[in-house]
């Protein structure tokens, strides 16, 4: 145990860790080590590994043996590198203590800066910096941050003291305060700590350090970090590392600064250095969005019409170094980097680098550009894009023809347009979402505590903060439209309204945001779907060249089918015909068909429905022009089509000439205790064969018509649902084949068609070998297969799924992402058994899982021929299929 290495050092051009040790050192620690190896200016430091975090929680919040002495040794090394000592009153070393998990979790965990200050070292710092005021200001910042994070004395205490003091002394801004003022504030702060915490503010620097390390590990399990992990699928077991690093000061005067930079524009992907900085400030000031930062480059300043000078203009030399470092980092990592830096007295220091979060549009542009620049291959470009993030591009944009009133403009922090009623708190946003209302969350600035509300809202508007403020970063990550830093918006939380340009907007009133341009509009502005062209089209075309599986869509209406074709669908994998029956013009005929007590009475309504169904299929076949179309015969229990309310019963009885009593009795007869497992699917097809026969006839007639009129070959695939036994399929297939023969004879035409089945029941999966004797294709209906394998009703799971997920009983919802171990085993088994009975058996999936990237990877592994998903998932599935191919087969 004591042999384990718990602490890794870095600094002075060398490091014990490296970029590929993210699991152990966290992202921040691994990249700090890597930057040292690259010879970049990094303040020396140490990383306590994520294994310590796991050991800490496994061992009742106790640290493992050996950590203590390893930490001391590493601290010693830092002291040597910077030439000062931790706790030395003459020449004190100050450190920052920061979290750093494997995946970036911006702002979710705790940080302590200026650690190592006490009543003695404050004088040493003043001497070393030659600045008393700076030293006392740093000390009071440290007391404030440490007490809040470690001792649980909330920062309001300190703000109140400071505000009162400024009022008394007639000071307006912090910069009015002198060294003596800050010294006084320190005394009062310490008194307040004693009152609230019940003990003195710790003067022992080692006690301070252990306190901060404990707080960072503790913050791994705070509520906001837990929410963030849940939303981003980050496992609890990963833990965080802790980075302790020599402080450098961006607040030593006008030649000092702190900032963040992206090697490319994270919003558009443009290949230009992009970022913000603040002169004479500490790191957290930029991210917190409290002061509005200045641009890095002159061009950006001019574009933003800002009169605050850019870094390029005020610190040209350091700016030049920053540009070089950026280039070096981007070429080394071969990806866009997001870096944090500090300038202390004209010297540049790098504090962090990581792959930058970016909008999907930017991710696509960067990937496509980097291929053109020869930095990455096409395969790498395809693997770089998170398939689910493509959803952002499918988000509506403002309709260019719409008229609207712009009431404010801010920064275009996260693209897409959204409308909703104004709310002013995250809790209200969450509540509104639960009530099914669409809202826009309006805040002065957001903090990690607001994350649940940001998720619930359609869009986010803030009055303060830059492009790298919390709101902007988090909204981009979530794909929520966001306008940040709209300075003219004056929010009054008490009155629950905001004022802008002479207008008052109250809570509940609707506004529209355009996160792509930063515009805020009154009322609801119409939106339009974007065109999928440019970089998107290029990358997805590369994906299409790579992937093996085909991508079809689940669609029954002409509008959905057309959308899916626009998104690149290569056929229909599931046309649920029951939706066609609900159409207002035909529901009466459908009801009459169901209520009929014998086949003779049923013949007339079926005759009326036939031409309508034929028209439906004609339209679908025409839109799909020769691509495969799988039509699933009627599936749901018949009572779903019958009237529920008294007045409807009356109307139906009149329309079809039946007494109300008789109608009610028939409705009761058709009612079932457990309709999901009742008289549906092929069972209904077997008891009322005329319904399936009518549908088959409509399909074949439509196929022959379309082939004749358009010249394209239509090969319809007729799909029988909910088969459990081969005998069910066999009887229905014989009937359908007979209809096919009849239609071909009547029309004097030939027609190719396939009859197949869905695999939706465990028994069907087990008996797949038998079933494939008749079925020419299988489509895995994983919605029902999940329902019947788990024995969990797909309609009733919501009430217990959430606790199952939050308590970790299920890692994910099996109705969303396929349960590969259980349901997946049935799919694999059915695929094998089916294929050994029929070599050319076509295999696909049409449950909701067909649009889920993890499930798509499973389908690739299993060797399915295609996946079928809802139209809006088609681009996602195309990319996910390509990625699966690269990961599994290449
Ligand atoms: C399924 O069960 O997976 C399926 C696609 O059919 P439905 O959702 O219509 O039951
Ligand atoms: Mg089903």
From TrEMBL:
Domain Pyruvate phosphate dikinase AMP/ATP-binding: 23-59, 63-304, 319-372
Record: residues binding Mg(2+): 760, 784
GO MF annotation terms: ATP binding; kinase activity; metal ion binding; pyruvate, phosphate dikinase activity
All residue ranges annotated as the PEP-utilising enzyme C-terminal domain in the record: 533-884
Residue ranges annotated for the PEP-utilising enzyme mobile domain, each copy included: 438-518
Documented EC number(s): 2.7.9.1
Catalysed reaction, written as an equation: pyruvate + phosphate + ATP = phosphoenolpyruvate + AMP + diphosphate + H(+)
InterPro entries, A to Z: ATP_grasp_subdomain_1, PEP-util_enz_mobile_dom, PEP_util_AS, PEP_util_C, PEP_util_CS, Phosphohistidine_dom_sf, PPDK_AMP/ATP-bd, Pyruvate_phosphate_dikinase
Name of this chain's protein: Pyruvate, phosphate dikinase
Origin species: Candidatus Micropelagius thuwalensis
């Amino acid at each position: 145990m004591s042999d384990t290495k718990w602490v890794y050092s870095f600094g002075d051009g060398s490091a014990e860790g490296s970029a590929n040790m993210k699991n152990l050192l966290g992202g921040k620690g691994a990249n700090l080590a890597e930057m040292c190896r690259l010879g970049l200016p990094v303040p020396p430091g140490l990383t306590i590994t994520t294994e310590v975090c796991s050991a800490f929680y496994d061992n009742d919040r106790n640290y493992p043996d050996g950590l203590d002495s390893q930490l001391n040794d590493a601290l010693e090394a830092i002291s040597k590198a910077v030439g000062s000592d931790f706790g030395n009153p003459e020449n004190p070393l100050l450190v920052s203590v920061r979290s750093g998990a494997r995946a970036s979790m911006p702002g979710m965990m705790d940080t302590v800066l200026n650690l190592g200050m006490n009543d003695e070292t404050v004088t040493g710092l003043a001497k070393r910096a030659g600045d008393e005021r700076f030293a006392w200001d740093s000390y009071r910042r440290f007391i404030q941050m440490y007490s809040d994070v470690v001792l649980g004395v909330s920062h309001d205490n300190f703000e109140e003291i400071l505000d009162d003091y400024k009022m008394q002394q007639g000071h307006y801004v912090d910069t009015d305060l002198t060294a003596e003022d800050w010294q006084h504030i320190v005394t009062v702060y310490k008194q307040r700590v004693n009152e609230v915490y019940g003990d003195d503010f710790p003067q022992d620097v080692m006690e301070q350090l252990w306190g901060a390390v404990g707080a960072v590990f503790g913050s791994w399990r705070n509520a906001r970090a837990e929410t963030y992990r849940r939303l981003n699928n980050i496992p609890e077991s990963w833990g965080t590392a802790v980075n302790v690093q020599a402080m450098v000061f961006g607040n030593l005067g006008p030649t000092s600064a702190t900032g963040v930079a992206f090697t490319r524009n994270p919003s558009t992907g443009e290949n230009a250095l992009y970022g913000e900085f603040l002169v004479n400030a500490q790191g957290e000031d930029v991210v917190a969005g409290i002061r509005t930062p200045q641009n890095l480059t002159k061009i950006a300043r001019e574009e933003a019409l800002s009169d605050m000078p850019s870094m390029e203009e005020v610190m040209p030399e350091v700016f030049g170094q920053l540009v070089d470092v950026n280039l070096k980092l981007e070429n080394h990592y071969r990806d866009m980097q997001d870096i944090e830096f500090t300038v202390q007295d004209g010297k540049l220091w790098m504090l962090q680098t990581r792959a930058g979060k970016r909008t999907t549009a930017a991710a696509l542009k960067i990937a496509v550009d980097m291929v053109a620049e020869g930095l990455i291959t096409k395969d790498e470009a395809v693997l770089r894009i998170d398939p689910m993030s493509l959803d952002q591009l499918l988000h509506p944009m403002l309709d260019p023809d719409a008229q609207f009133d712009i009431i404010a403009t801010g920064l275009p922090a996260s693209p897409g347009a959204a409308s909703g009623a104004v709310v002013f708190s995250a809790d209200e946003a969450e509540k509104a979402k639960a009530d099914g209302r669409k809202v826009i969350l309006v805040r002065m600035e957001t903090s990690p505590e607001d994350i649940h509300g940001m998720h619930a809202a359609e869009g986010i508007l803030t009055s303060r903060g830059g492009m790298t403020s919390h709101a902007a970063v988090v909204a981009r990550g979530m794909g929520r439209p966001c306008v940040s830093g709209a300075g003219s918006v004056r929010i009054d939380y008490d009155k629950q309204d905001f004022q802008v340009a002479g207008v008052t907007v109250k809570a509940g009133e609707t506004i529209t945001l355009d996160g792509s341009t930063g515009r805020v509009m009154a009322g609801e502005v119409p939106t339009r779907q974007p065109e999928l062209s440019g970089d998107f089209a290029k990358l997805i075309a590369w994906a299409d060249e790579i992937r093996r599986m085909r991508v079809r869509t689940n669609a029954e209406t002409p509008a959905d089918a057309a959308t899916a074709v626009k998104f690149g669908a290569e056929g229909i994998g599931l046309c649920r015909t029951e939706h066609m029956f609900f159409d207002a013009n035909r529901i009466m005929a459908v009801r009459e068909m169901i209520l009929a007590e014998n086949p003779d009475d049923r013949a007339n309504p079926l005759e009326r429905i036939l031409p309508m169904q034929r028209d439906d299929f004609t339209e679908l076949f025409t839109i799909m022009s020769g691509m495969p179309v799988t039509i699933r015969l009627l599936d749901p229990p018949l009572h779903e089509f019958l009237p529920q309310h008294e007045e409807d019963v009356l109307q139906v009885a009149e329309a079809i000439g039946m007494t109300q009593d008789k109608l009610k009795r028939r409705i009761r007869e058709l009612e079932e205790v457990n309709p999901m497992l009742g008289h549906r699917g092929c069972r209904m097809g077997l008891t009322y064969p005329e319904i399936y026969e009518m549908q088959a006839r409509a399909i074949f007639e439509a196929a022959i018509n379309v082939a004749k009129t358009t010249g394209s070959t239509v090969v319809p695939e007729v799909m029988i649902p909910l088969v459990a036994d081969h005998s069910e399929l066999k009887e229905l297939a014989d009937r359908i084949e007979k209809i096919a023969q009849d239609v071909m004879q009547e029309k004097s035409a030939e027609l190719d068609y396939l009859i197949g089945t869905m695999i939706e029941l465990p028994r069907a999966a087990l008996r797949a070998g038998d079933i494939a004797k008749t079925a020419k294709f299988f489509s895995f209906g994983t919605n029902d297969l999940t329902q019947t394998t788990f024995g969990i009703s797909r309609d009733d799971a919501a009430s217990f799924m959430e606790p199952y997920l939050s308590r970790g009983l299920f890692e994910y919802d099996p109705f969303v992402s396929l349960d590969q171990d259980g349901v997946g085993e049935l799919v694999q088994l059915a695929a094998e058994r089916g294929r050994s009975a029929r070599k050319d058996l076509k295999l696909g999936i049409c449950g909701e899982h067909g649009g889920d990237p993890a499930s798509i990877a499973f389908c690739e592994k299993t060797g399915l021929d295609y996946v079928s998903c809802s139209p809006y998932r088609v681009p996602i599935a195309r990319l996910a299929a390509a990625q699966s191919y690269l990961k599994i087969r290449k």
